[in-house]
Amino acid sequence: MLAELPGPRDLQTLRVALTMVAREILSVMMQPEYLALLRIIMAETPRFPQIGQLFKAAVPERGLTILATLLQQAREHKIVAEIDLDAVSHALLGGLLTYALLDVFFAGEDASPVALERADAIVEVMMRALAPAAI
After folding, report:
1. Of the candidates 95, 92, 112, which has an alpha carbon nearest to the alpha carbon of residue 103?
2. What's the DSSP call for residue 84?
3. Residue 35: what are its φ and ψ, rounded to 5°?
4. How far apart are CA 111 and CA 16, in angstroms?
């Protein structure tokens, strides 16, 4: 579904698309099954490096590709500033991952779900970085 998002036509459609992607990524990261898998991968990657490589290719790289594609389309339509889109993609994904790790993964029994509005806030910060100077 996310890989099939239409290309952004303006800053507002980019904001909507990035928000949809960010919310979906954050909601997946909050799933108990995802967190359990992440724990296993983190524990076993030193013994079996290929597990980490497979996970990276299947999960975070997929998210980065979706984000990079949206941002590249926005650049092609000249609706974003000329900035490092790879850095923006990583910053957006990293911000979401930080919420998942700090507020849920490492919180243990004290963990509470992260509000999806946190994804909205991260997207808003990124949109300010992406907006052309004239806006």
Report:
1. 112
2. -
3. -65, -40
4. 28
Rounded to whole angstroms, the Cα distance separating 103 from 107 reads 6
In sequence order, what are the residues at sequence separation of 6 or more whose Cβ sits closer than 8 angstroms to the Cβ of residue 134? none
pLDDT tens profile 28-68: 998 889 888 999 999 999 999 999 999 999 989 999 999 99
Q: Name the CA radius of gyration of the chain, rounded.
A: 16
48: how many CB neighbours lie within 10 A of its CB?
11
The neighbour count for residue 126, using CB atoms within 10 Å, is 22
Confirm if 51 and 45 have CB atoms less than 8 A apart. Answer: yes
Query: What is the amino acid identity at position 115?
Result: A
The sign of the torsion formed by the CA atoms of 110, 112, 108, 123 equals negative
Amino acid in the structure at residue 15: R
Q: Which three-class secondary structure string do you get for 99-126?
A: HHHHHHHCCHHHCCCCCCHHHHHHHHHH
